[in-house]
Amino acid sequence: MRKQLTHHLLRRFVPFAAILPMAMVTLVAYLGATLWSIKVSFSNSRTMPTETFVGFAQYVKLFDNDRWLLSIENIAIYTVLFILISMVLGFLLAVFIDQKVMAEGALRTVFLYPYAMSFVATGLIWQWMLTPGIGIEYAVRQMGFPDFAFDWIIDQDKVIYTIVIATVWQTAGLVMALLLAALRGIDEEIWKAARLDGIPVWRVYISIVIPMLAPAIATVFLLLSTTAIKLFDSVVAMTQGGPGTASEVPAKFIMDHLFGRANIALASAGAVMLLVPVIVILAPYVYARSRRKH
């Protein structure tokens, strides 16, 4: 009886012991760092943190900063285009692969491979491809179009779109893989019934398939949203925030003020503001999942 009780207690304890390190990391490294950043954002800290409370002065200063406002505008444009194009392109690729095409395994690998690369590597590759005089511009001119110009990466009004191109190229394969898995979970009988009723294929996708993919689409949207909000590596690798500050984004603004300008209070205020859209996106998702469980 005693051995059975000991065995039962061990079986209950071992799973908790296994997740304890991750729980501690989450509490200390993530939650602790978040609370510390919030505290620092209400101080006048510069190189080192101080205890001087200044209220919302750093937030007022933040939104009086033209560079911060430009970064918000850029991330808004980027997020909308990045999510929309990635989801549409990923869905179309998933539909294509779902048709039992030849060399399906090889195609899945080709489409998904860019996601295995770091955002820095992707940024450097696309920087070379988009630089005027080489890459895409040079290749098109060699094909007999000597007047072709593609100088978006040095155009202040268009540079943010080059970052959209690079990051969509990297993440569309992930969207394809997630939605393909969801498509493969749809009962084949639905397609047979649709064919018997003479329903056009496009109508089946719009009225039946896409609503059935809602959970997978919500997951993809959540992943893409958080990826977009924390955009940093690709910008640094491709443009360094330039030309000038034309491709500035919030994460780069925060890192520059944290390490380059020794203003950790302003950087912390920016980090707190960057946390707000993440919470806005996560809260409905968490609420919907909790409602579904009950």
Annotate the secondary structure layout.
Elements: H1 2-41, H2 57-63, H3 66-97, H4 104-116, H5 119-130, H6 135-142, H7 159-184, H8 188-196, H9 201-212, H10 214-229, H11 233-238, H12 250-260, H13 264-293
Helix pairs in contact: 1-13, 2-13, 3-7, 3-10, 4-7, 5-7, 7-10, 10-13, 12-13
Keywords for this entry:
294 residues, mainly alpha, MetI-like fold, 0% strand, flat
What features would you describe in this structure?
- The protein starts with a helix and ends with a helix.
- By secondary structure, the protein is mainly alpha-helical.
- It has one domain (56-293): MetI-like fold (Orthogonal Bundle), CATH 1.10.3720.10.
- α3 (66-97) packs parallel to α7, α5 (119-130) crosses α7 (159-184) and α10 runs antiparallel to α13 (264-293).
- The chain is flat and about 75 Å long.
- The protein has helices spanning 2-41, 57-63, 66-97, 104-116, 119-130, 135-142, 159-184, 188-196, 201-212, 214-229, 233-238, 250-260, 264-293.
Structural class: mainly alpha
Roughly how much helix do the residues carry, as a percent range?
Answer: over 70%
The beta-strand count equals 0
% residues in beta strands: under 5%
Q: What overall geometry do the principal axes of the alpha carbons give?
A: flat
Note poorly predicted spans. Answer: none
The quaternary state of the protein chains shown equals: single chain
The figure for the number of domains is: 1
Question: What is the straight-line distance between the termini?
Answer: 36 Å
CATH top level is Mainly Alpha
Considering the protein shown, what is the CATH homologous superfamily? MetI-like
Q: What is the residue-mean pLDDT, rounded to a whole number?
A: 87
Membrane topology: Multi-pass membrane protein
Domain ABC transmembrane type-1: 72-285
Protein name: Sugar ABC transporter permease
GO cellular component, one term: plasma membrane
